[in-house]
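User: Sorry, what's this?
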Amino acid sequence: MSETKVFVFSGASGAGKSTVLKRIMSERDDLRFSVSATTRAPREGEVDGVHYFFVTRERFQEMIAGGELLEYDEHFGNLYGTPVSQVSCGGRVVLDVEPNGAFNARKANPDAKLIFITPPSMEELERRLRSRGDTPEDQIDSRLERAKWEIAQSVHYDYVVINDDLDHCVKQVADILDYEINR
Protein backbone atom coordinates (compact mmCIF):
# COMPACT_ATOMS: atom_id res chain seq x y z
CA MET A 1 0.00 0.00 0.00
CA SER A 2 1.34 3.43 -0.93
CA GLU A 3 1.55 6.34 1.45
CA THR A 4 -1.66 8.32 1.78
CA LYS A 5 -1.62 12.09 1.37
CA VAL A 6 -4.95 13.69 2.25
CA PHE A 7 -6.17 17.07 0.98
CA VAL A 8 -9.32 18.30 2.69
CA PHE A 9 -11.38 21.01 0.97
CA SER A 10 -14.13 23.03 2.60
CA GLY A 11 -16.11 26.10 1.66
CA ALA A 12 -19.52 27.60 2.18
CA SER A 13 -22.35 26.54 -0.08
CA GLY A 14 -22.05 28.81 -3.12
CA ALA A 15 -18.33 29.58 -2.69
CA GLY A 16 -17.52 27.61 -5.84
CA LYS A 17 -15.66 24.76 -4.13
CA SER A 18 -17.35 22.03 -6.18
CA THR A 19 -16.63 23.88 -9.43
CA VAL A 20 -12.98 24.35 -8.46
CA LEU A 21 -12.64 20.69 -7.47
CA LYS A 22 -14.26 19.48 -10.71
CA ARG A 23 -11.72 21.49 -12.69
CA ILE A 24 -8.78 20.28 -10.58
CA MET A 25 -9.87 16.65 -10.80
CA SER A 26 -10.43 16.87 -14.58
CA GLU A 27 -6.94 18.30 -15.10
CA ARG A 28 -5.00 15.86 -12.91
CA ASP A 29 -4.64 12.11 -12.81
CA ASP A 30 -2.45 12.03 -9.69
CA LEU A 31 -5.41 12.63 -7.34
CA ARG A 32 -8.32 10.43 -6.27
CA PHE A 33 -11.59 11.99 -5.15
CA SER A 34 -13.07 10.51 -1.98
CA VAL A 35 -16.74 9.66 -2.40
CA SER A 36 -18.75 10.58 0.70
CA ALA A 37 -21.74 8.76 2.13
CA THR A 38 -24.97 10.68 2.68
CA THR A 39 -28.52 10.14 3.81
CA ARG A 40 -29.90 12.76 1.44
CA ALA A 41 -31.75 11.73 -1.69
CA PRO A 42 -29.85 11.82 -4.98
CA ARG A 43 -30.32 14.93 -7.10
CA GLU A 44 -31.08 14.60 -10.78
CA GLY A 45 -28.08 13.13 -12.59
CA GLU A 46 -26.27 11.95 -9.46
CA VAL A 47 -25.02 8.37 -9.51
CA ASP A 48 -24.62 6.18 -6.42
CA GLY A 49 -20.95 5.41 -5.82
CA VAL A 50 -19.81 8.22 -8.11
CA HIS A 51 -21.21 11.40 -6.58
CA TYR A 52 -22.08 9.93 -3.16
CA PHE A 53 -22.85 6.63 -1.56
CA PHE A 54 -26.57 7.16 -0.94
CA VAL A 55 -27.57 5.25 2.19
CA THR A 56 -30.46 5.17 4.61
CA ARG A 57 -30.18 6.88 7.97
CA GLU A 58 -30.17 3.41 9.56
CA ARG A 59 -27.26 2.25 7.40
CA PHE A 60 -25.37 5.47 8.17
CA GLN A 61 -25.85 4.84 11.91
CA GLU A 62 -24.49 1.31 11.40
CA MET A 63 -21.45 2.80 9.64
CA ILE A 64 -20.85 5.11 12.62
CA ALA A 65 -21.24 2.27 15.12
CA GLY A 66 -18.94 0.02 13.09
CA GLY A 67 -16.15 2.59 12.85
CA GLU A 68 -16.54 2.73 9.08
CA LEU A 69 -16.38 6.54 8.88
CA LEU A 70 -13.29 8.74 9.10
CA GLU A 71 -15.51 11.72 9.87
CA TYR A 72 -19.20 12.55 9.74
CA ASP A 73 -21.57 15.38 10.48
CA GLU A 74 -25.16 16.41 10.01
CA HIS A 75 -26.28 19.57 8.34
CA PHE A 76 -29.49 20.72 6.73
CA GLY A 77 -31.14 17.56 8.09
CA ASN A 78 -28.88 15.06 6.33
CA LEU A 79 -25.88 13.04 7.48
CA TYR A 80 -22.62 13.17 5.51
CA GLY A 81 -19.44 11.22 6.12
CA THR A 82 -16.20 9.92 4.64
CA PRO A 83 -15.91 6.13 4.57
CA VAL A 84 -12.54 4.96 5.93
CA SER A 85 -12.24 2.78 2.84
CA GLN A 86 -11.92 5.92 0.71
CA VAL A 87 -8.67 6.99 2.37
CA SER A 88 -7.16 3.71 3.54
CA CYS A 89 -5.90 2.47 0.19
CA GLY A 90 -3.12 5.03 -0.21
CA GLY A 91 -2.38 7.65 -2.81
CA ARG A 92 -3.34 11.31 -2.94
CA VAL A 93 -6.91 11.67 -1.78
CA VAL A 94 -9.15 14.73 -2.04
CA LEU A 95 -11.98 15.13 0.48
CA ASP A 96 -14.81 17.64 0.13
CA VAL A 97 -16.22 18.15 3.63
CA GLU A 98 -17.52 20.91 5.89
CA PRO A 99 -15.32 22.34 8.68
CA ASN A 100 -16.29 19.89 11.45
CA GLY A 101 -15.53 17.03 9.09
CA ALA A 102 -12.23 18.66 8.12
CA PHE A 103 -11.15 18.95 11.74
CA ASN A 104 -12.13 15.33 12.41
CA ALA A 105 -10.27 14.21 9.28
CA ARG A 106 -7.18 16.01 10.56
CA LYS A 107 -7.52 14.28 13.96
CA ALA A 108 -7.53 10.94 12.15
CA ASN A 109 -4.73 12.01 9.78
CA PRO A 110 -2.59 14.78 11.35
CA ASP A 111 -0.66 15.30 8.09
CA ALA A 112 -3.83 16.17 6.16
CA LYS A 113 -3.72 19.57 4.47
CA LEU A 114 -6.82 21.71 4.92
CA ILE A 115 -7.77 24.09 2.11
CA PHE A 116 -10.70 26.50 2.41
CA ILE A 117 -12.36 28.04 -0.66
CA THR A 118 -14.11 31.29 0.20
CA PRO A 119 -16.18 33.78 -1.78
CA PRO A 120 -14.88 37.34 -2.10
CA SER A 121 -17.77 38.67 0.04
CA MET A 122 -21.02 37.66 1.72
CA GLU A 123 -22.89 39.75 -0.86
CA GLU A 124 -21.31 37.74 -3.67
CA LEU A 125 -22.10 34.51 -1.85
CA GLU A 126 -25.75 35.49 -1.55
CA ARG A 127 -25.84 36.45 -5.24
CA ARG A 128 -24.38 33.05 -6.19
CA LEU A 129 -26.81 31.12 -3.99
CA ARG A 130 -29.78 32.96 -5.50
CA SER A 131 -28.57 32.73 -9.09
CA ARG A 132 -27.73 29.03 -9.22
CA GLY A 133 -31.36 28.08 -8.64
CA ASP A 134 -30.85 24.91 -6.59
CA THR A 135 -31.37 26.46 -3.16
CA PRO A 136 -34.99 27.02 -2.12
CA GLU A 137 -35.65 30.62 -1.11
CA ASP A 138 -36.62 29.57 2.43
CA GLN A 139 -33.14 28.01 2.89
CA ILE A 140 -31.04 30.95 1.66
CA ASP A 141 -30.93 32.74 5.02
CA SER A 142 -29.98 29.58 6.94
CA ARG A 143 -27.25 28.80 4.38
CA LEU A 144 -25.89 32.34 4.71
CA GLU A 145 -25.84 32.02 8.51
CA ARG A 146 -24.08 28.67 8.19
CA ALA A 147 -21.63 30.26 5.73
CA LYS A 148 -20.67 32.94 8.26
CA TRP A 149 -19.73 30.24 10.75
CA GLU A 150 -17.87 28.18 8.12
CA ILE A 151 -15.89 31.19 6.89
CA ALA A 152 -14.95 32.01 10.50
CA GLN A 153 -13.48 28.49 10.77
CA SER A 154 -11.12 29.16 7.86
CA VAL A 155 -8.53 30.57 10.29
CA HIS A 156 -7.87 26.94 11.31
CA TYR A 157 -7.01 25.86 7.75
CA ASP A 158 -3.56 25.59 6.20
CA TYR A 159 -4.66 27.56 3.14
CA VAL A 160 -7.49 29.95 2.32
CA VAL A 161 -8.15 30.68 -1.36
CA ILE A 162 -10.54 33.45 -2.40
CA ASN A 163 -12.67 32.42 -5.37
CA ASP A 164 -13.15 35.79 -7.04
CA ASP A 165 -11.94 34.53 -10.44
CA LEU A 166 -12.38 30.84 -11.24
CA ASP A 167 -9.27 30.40 -13.39
CA HIS A 168 -7.07 32.18 -10.85
CA CYS A 169 -8.58 30.18 -7.97
CA VAL A 170 -7.99 26.87 -9.79
CA LYS A 171 -4.38 27.91 -10.49
CA GLN A 172 -3.81 28.79 -6.82
CA VAL A 173 -5.23 25.45 -5.68
CA ALA A 174 -3.12 23.56 -8.25
CA ASP A 175 -0.02 25.41 -7.00
CA ILE A 176 -0.84 24.49 -3.39
CA LEU A 177 -1.28 20.82 -4.33
CA ASP A 178 1.98 20.80 -6.28
CA TYR A 179 3.83 22.42 -3.40
CA GLU A 180 2.46 19.96 -0.82
CA ILE A 181 3.05 16.93 -3.03
CA ASN A 182 6.63 17.91 -3.80
CA ARG A 183 7.78 19.06 -0.35
The chain is about 40% helix and 25% strand. The domain at 1-34+91-183 is CATH 3.40.50.300 (Rossmann fold). The longest strand covers residues 4-10.
